[in-house]
Amino acid sequence: MNVPRPNNLDAYWMPYSDNKYFKANPRMIARAEGMSYFTADGAEILDGTAGLWCCNAGHGRVQIKEAIQKQAAILDYAPTFQLGHPIAFEAAARIAELTPDGMDKVFFTNSGSESADTALKIALAYHKARGESSRVRLIGRERGYHGVGFGGMSVGGIGGNRKQFGALLPYVDHLPHTHGIEANRFARGMPEEGAHLADALENLVALHGAETIAAVMVEPIAGSTGVLVPPRGYLERLRALCTKHGILLIFDEVITGFGRIGTNFGAERLGVTPDIMTMAKGLTNAAVPMGAVAVRNGVYDAIVEGAPGGIELFHGYTYSGHPLAAAAAIATMELHREEDLPGRARAIEPLWQEATHSLRDLPNVIDIRDYGLIAGIELAPRAGKPGHRAMEVFRRCFDAGVLIRVTGDIIALSPPLIIEPKHIDRLYGTLGEAIRAEAA
Q1: Three-state secondary structure along 103-171?
Q2: What pLDDT band is residue 1 in, cutting at 50, 70 and 90?
Q3: 181 CB contacts (<8 Å, ≥6 apart)?
Q4: 65-339: which CATH architecture?
Q5: Does domain 19-60+340-437 have CATH number 3.40.50.12780?
Q6: What is the pLDDT of residues 243-281, one digit of tens each?
Q7: For the chain, what are the domain ranges?
Q8: With a threshold of 0.85, does the pTM exceed it?
């Protein structure tokens, strides 16, 4: 099969990349199908990360491709400011069928980053609509990731994402992360210790005053920082405290949404319902960029029904509810329903967990975490070279035909939900060999 090849590598400034290293040592992907990527030379690369946590249904799905093609021939673009087009409304209704009961209102964005900033703005607008304009403070969590917009980056808590860009938004504070508890090392599924860390919200309430806090935003499972699974009871305590103090709870479900942990959304399996939920990635199987924010009906009513008239929320994007993205979303959700991708994830989860923890005794493996079809394998860093060991493992795996993801010295895995036992064997076999090769 003929695939495109670049004529040079100069013009493209690559995101989140060591541009100098890559352009001297390029590793290129040219096409994708099923569980695999392929290089321009035809080498197969097993996808252990669903792209970037997003191709939950695998690659090259015909139903999604045909839906995009069909929609492009009917309506390529239409604005959604004071106008509408049918497929955006249909996509919103399909999403509302999957969200927790009482979260039936959906606002479209184009990415997880935009969803995070949108959710924070909705939270501020909600309190203002209810006459509580003093609630302007936003609470995130250490090691949290909520995209790269100024709002999401401000409540996010990964230092490397923040330190280049100055003070960011004012009136932001952070809860402690839930990682590093010795008793939780090598936990299978949810760890036992650490629910009390949610009580740090009481300290922030005492410090700032509940009447100043608008929202708390957390990932149900912190993904990009290296797979931090919440301790048992942690999210329940956080929910109870938010309710007690009139604070909105926002779940960033960009990673945990659309079957990743065996249910439509993380809130369902984890048994905690937020007030606002962000999503993206798996929404369209990454075929067309799209994000969304679902809100509790009462949040929507307070803003929309409480407005005096005219525009109720001064927010939106040129491409909100884009016709091609909406078509991709509908086709993706139909695939999830027909093939029961969340159910498939739950069915293979025990095998996935066993394979993940089989790496426990390899050199330099200091912790392993898993939940659903997510895994984090933490390696001891090399002295004076943080992140170097894991990056070398990443490169070895790619060259051996397997794609993994690394963040610092943590290997993160999140395969397409169509993964089969043979793929798990190959993924972990290759990864194990790469970890052994980087033992020194």
Answers
A1: CCEEEEECCHHHHHHHHHHHHHHHHHHCCCCCCCEEEEECCCCCCCCHHHHHHCCCHHHHCCCCCCCCC
A2: low
A3: 191, 193, 194, 231
A4: 3-Layer(aba) Sandwich (3.40)
A5: no
A6: 999 999 999 999 999 999 999 999 999 999 999 999 999
A7: 19-60+340-437, 65-339
A8: yes
